[in-house]
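Aim 2 progress update. The chain analyzed this quarter is reproduced below.
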Amino acid sequence: MASTCPLPPTKERHPSRSLLGGWPLLAWILLLCLIQQTLVLTPSATAQITAKKANKAIDRGVTFLKNQYKINNNRWPEYAAVPGGIPALCTLALLQSGLPPSDPTVQQSLEQLRAMDNVQMVYARALITMALCAAEPKRDRLQIQQHVQWLQQAQVKQGSHRGGWSYNSGQSTSDSSNSQFALMGLHEAEQVGIEVDKATFQMALDYWLKRQDKAGGWPYQPSMGS
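Predicted structure tokens:
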């Protein structure tokens, strides 16, 4: 997920913490992205954290992720429930940190993602799409198009959940988490010139507008709290 933190460019960027296993690594990365966004929105917090400190932390995080990649025999670990999720998220984190697609770890990571052309999870498809768009979209144009087609087909087309996404294709229910990831993937694809059906975005817009609560937020599902 791209950061909105206005930091000056560096050779390496991305924060991290200790690895507790496959899924916790994914959780830590998502948590750190959330923390970064919180800092952007909190003046008192940003006043305490300088760009220099933030960039140093991100550089250490990049080193950490690369070390974990090497420890796992030059592959990212997998979480069985969401195959492809961790490799895509880690690759995207390295790219968003400022590493170029030509970086050896990024190149090998991209090859791992390119081999995942049949994953059946919305999270993974969306993240793989985002990573490929951030790296070498011209080279991977055909594969990105295939991911876009899959995400469009996976969108709920009928019923009260129309316009949203669930964990995989062919579902009649949805949740805000999968729905936002699907939209981010489609958005990134459109940004690199891949056509996305306007009806897909229109249904998604209707979906989000209908589910916004009185406080201005969105629940995970209509019957649940935010």
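The radius of gyration is 18 Å. Residues 1-24 have pLDDT under 50 and may be disordered. These observations will guide the mutagenesis experiments scheduled for the next reporting period.
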